[in-house]
Write a structure and sequence with these properties.
By secondary structure, this protein is an alpha+beta fold. Helix content is 33%, strand content 28%. The protein has four helices and six strands; from the N terminus they run E-H-E-E-H-E-E-E-H-H. A six-stranded antiparallel β-sheet has the order 1-3-2-6-5-4, with helices on both faces. Strand 4 and strand 5 form a beta hairpin. The protein is globular and about 40 Å long. The chain starts with a strand and ends in a 9-residue tail after the last helix.
Length: 138
């Protein structure tokens, strides 16, 4: 399992605990292959955790996250209220996007992953990221 944190030195110990939690979530369910937590406004990944079967394109997070933000903005235009979650089923992957406060949480699963199982991680991940500081603009 590969993890990455992009926090400042002051936040590294807090974020290392959060990285460990994400890593443990991946280890708990072999069908979950990646978790990305990013800022909604900037598409900046703050926490990432993925296993080797995660698609290489997700290693270049920004385009993938930016497409998720576009999805959020467009789905909010439907007039059905604020979008909270979006599930996408691809030929070989399932993706759950969770919009929580200023964060986008992206859970990537293999084709045989359960969307219900992926959605059941929402509470743990939201609790994990609820106190993350917002990144300052450079």
């Amino acid at each position: 399992v590969s993890t990455q944190s992009t926090g400042t030195t002051n936040n590294l110990s807090m974020e290392s605990g959060k990285q460990k939690l994400l890593s443990n979530l991946l280890k708990r369910d072999d069908s979950i292959i990646g978790i990305i937590v990013a800022e909604k406004d900037s598409a900046t990944p703050v926490l990432t955790c993925y296993n080797p079967s995660c698609p290489e394109s997700l290693d270049r997070h920004r385009p993938f996250i930016a497409s998720t933000i576009t999805l959020l903005r467009n789905s909010n235009k439907l007039g059905l209220g604020e979008t909270k979650r979006v599930c996408a089923i691809y030929e070989d992957k399932n993706v759950v996007n969770i919009f929580f406060k200023q964060w986008i949480i992206i859970i990537i699963g293999s084709a045989n992953s359960s969307l219900g199982g992926m959605l059941s991680l929402e509470g743990e991940i939201c609790n994990c990221v609820s106190d993350l500081p917002i990144l300052a603009d450079d």
